[in-house]
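RECORD TYPE: protein structure
NAME: Membrane-associated protease RseP, regulator of RpoE activity
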Amino acid sequence: MTALFYLLGVAIFVVAILVSIGLHELGHLIPAKRFGGKVTQYFIGFGPTVWSKQVGETEYGLKAIPLGGYVKIVGMLPPGAEDLVDDVTYDEDGNPVHKVRKSNTGMFTQLITDARAAEWELVKPEDTDRLFYKLPWWKKVVVMGGGPTVNLLIAFFLFLLVFSTYGVKTSEVDAGAPVVDAISECVIPYSESGRACEETDPVSPALGAGLRPGDTITTFNGTAIAGWEQLRDLIRDNKGGTATIGYERDGKPLTGTTSTTVEARPTSDSDETLTEVGFLGVVPTTHTVTEKGGVLFTLDQMGTMTVDTVQALGTLPVKVWDVAQAIVGLEERAADSPMSIVGGGRLAGETVSHDEFPVVDKAVFLVMLIAGFNFFIGMLNFVPLLPLDGGHIASALWEALRRGFARLRRRPDPGYVDAAKLLPIAYVVAMGFVVMGVVLIVGDLVVPLHLEG
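PREDICTED:
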């Protein structure tokens, strides 16, 4: 039964991602058709075609590898002045006739020329006024921005569903003098965080002081303790090491002496600089706080997510490199490392098959996982680099800016931006994403992230 629930979780996640991909591509297809563009293909997946159907001028279908999708819009690349003479002409069968230079100098020039030739093989005489590159700049922005915008909208509505019903649950330390909920058994070097205690590890200062779960800490080196934050600051600042701790157990006052000096470690979650600070090894009792909200609350939460995602995108190559090192055993895989759709499917399966999770918590986790993937996909596609949608958006905006400056300065119209000249960069970026994708998929198979709890 557990295996069946695992497969169910994987299936739910995969289907949801495929639906998201399909809606992303519809975000391109619908405005492209509304603006008069010619869309010849709409496919979910890559590789060999599994199924397709021709509807009008567009072929709709599924491909074997469900790692993305695409919409083929005719005329993405303008004819290059160096490759074509005057306007494109057509032979008696309606095929475009190119007057291409007989020789090309350089690999990149040949690459661009070949890409133009392949693009214009699809152009027919009746398509002249329907080519994508001829659309006004703002229509190009709408068409290319439609896909990732759909992903962000999916994420928004899923987040809204969760935030307005289930809410955001956080743990807060109980007020008053801190009550010990758990105690570290030993002191583990920060560089080895996450492993179990070994016989050679020193006993934690809390155990050395005689503390046990349920004890209430009342004083630290003679200072009365009113709350957890005060105690934490006193422990960290106790550079002398020796600490006399007053606590109550079953209403009886007790005292213990220990040393809080341990190996250097970060001073906070946001500052990873290793500093020698005091360490006791206690976890205070907490309670769960639930915060719910509607549209504005969701937008506020997504604003924070946007900042975090932009930072994550900036460090993505480094994070993927760390995953590659984890694959070959050079380091442990970090819990916050990126994952592929394979990793997402594994987490979905583990969630649904987890015996201790309530059904509501399972459903919320799945919805948040799907929303998170959509949010990341949307943000990633707005990065202004070809072949991402953001690269085409940036090209359209540059075209508008360039033409606007030309009008202001009463100069001739500079014409359309030639995105083909950026193809070498696009191929390098695409190859980079392919490599990172492969590394993450292998990582999710060899050193997968697992559900905590």
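COMMENT: The radius of gyration is 29 Å.
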